[in-house]
């Protein structure tokens, strides 16, 4: 039996022991629906292709954690030209959708392009706010990191070179899960053995760094929304859950020794509220950060060409300084 066939059988066996929830018709945050909203104002954009090239292998539907009978799945994208003597660095990708919607397939185009640059990439599903509120999504992102590290040998990955990246709500989740890698409170207890959940780098693509800024509260704590996306995830409005809104803000956890962060932001500052202050706090703590603002871009720009490629290029350049692929 080939190694690939064995891996596929392993995935099938894992899938048989638990289930994923049925599709939710209300979950419409994907490239197609977003394109329909943006195409009039951005007529030159195209949905980025997730087609699998000949130099990338995809292993889909791997169970990385289980909550009761609930499967949490990831899709693993592997470069076929990886060196045989060195494990591949890995990027765990967390989709967006306001903490209440979205699909791991959102990041398939970016995963493919990262794999073509020598990085393994894992696109993950996680529990959305309608199923499990904060901090479940943080637990799930951390569990995915645990799984990658625990299965590094099986998939020829490097357990010491793992990054967390995400877009929109996924950017906030990736930042919080990554910057709190030293805090056991954000582990769910469903992790693989005693392996570390820490990562070596973070990429926050147009996600919040501080829920409590005036700009963030204007949109995320809007009393006209019953509730807002953030309020639904955090269990209430800011006045009702101030400690939780603060705890969920990555900026509150800046500390020396945390992973460096690449911030990639759209031209819509509300979505990356707190970014500049967090970069300043990181500098004060002696931690590197880098920021790329893509002018003229809408939110969700990473789903589309021509913006996906500069997003990938910036990510690869950043990661190559910390966990190079080749």
From TrEMBL:
<feature type="signal peptide">
    <location>
        <begin position="1"/>
        <end position="18"/>
    </location>
</feature>
<dbReference type="Pfam" id="PF20434">
    <property type="entry name" value="BD-FAE"/>
</dbReference>
<dbReference type="InterPro" id="IPR049492">
    <property type="entry name" value="BD-FAE-like_dom"/>
</dbReference>
<dbReference type="GO" id="GO:0016787">
    <property type="term" value="F:hydrolase activity"/>
</dbReference>
<keyword id="KW-0732">Signal</keyword>
<keyword id="KW-0378">Hydrolase</keyword>
<protein>
    <submittedName>
        <fullName>Alpha/beta hydrolase fold domain-containing protein</fullName>
    </submittedName>
</protein>
<feature type="domain" description="BD-FAE-like">
    <location>
        <begin position="74"/>
        <end position="265"/>
    </location>
</feature>
<dbReference type="InterPro" id="IPR029058">
    <property type="entry name" value="AB_hydrolase_fold"/>
</dbReference>
<dbReference type="InterPro" id="IPR050300">
    <property type="entry name" value="GDXG_lipolytic_enzyme"/>
</dbReference>
